[in-house]
Request: fold
Amino acid sequence: MPPPERVPAPGVSAVTPIEELLTRGELTVRGRIAEASNAVLLCTVAYEGRSAECVYKPVKGERPLWDFPDGNLARRERAAYLVSEATGWGLVPTTVLRDGPYGEGMVQHWIDAGEQPEPQLLALVEGEEAGEGWKAVALAEVGEGRTALLVHADDPRLRRLAVLDAVINNGDRKGGHLLPAPDGRLYGIDHGVTFHSEDKLRTLLWGWAGEPLTGEARSVLTSLEAQLAEDAPLTTRLAELITPAELAAVRARVALLLRSGTHPKPSGQWPSIPWPPV
Reply:
């Protein structure tokens, strides 16, 4: 599959129509996504004759995390969106922070995956070789003493997402957090466990670990490094959402990626694959 065209970064000061809708519109709760570990409410939002579906995650519905004592999931979700927009890749659905029926929370544009066929992104295969078009992640137990090789597609959309996850230190990149859209774009969702100042990267997208970054990725990271300078607009907005130590760690991770020129490898100090993986 050819790499998707890069979406020009709108700049962190720009407000898109969908962002305005999500921020200013009236939220109406339609139901709850029961399988979510925190409160996730399916809503509609309406403003000046426009409407859309969205998810609303109120801070009051978050379960405390012992290893993420600072801030909250909602603010980290918004921060992940801002960094994604700064890359120009548009990998995270439009996400805002606002008051809702149950107080402050994250509101994110609902992406309808539709029913169109999508090339498989993750698989378990026999043997120890990933095969053409796939990247190996790890051996997985599949029952009765048998193992299979967990692989993901050698897909440029996933590779972009792997770079973003390395920047935001995503501690929970599961298969169920990959959302193909009808227009061929791929989104990542559920970014509440991100931006820790310590290495927490847990993902199913380890297939490029240790491999050189693409030229596109290096260019994006160079731009991102400049956008994270002191008093830059992106820095100012992130400082409202994450701690100073977390913001400093973002800068350090970007600098390390540029210095190494490679995708990161598992540190060995933390489980490298989230559980459950879907």
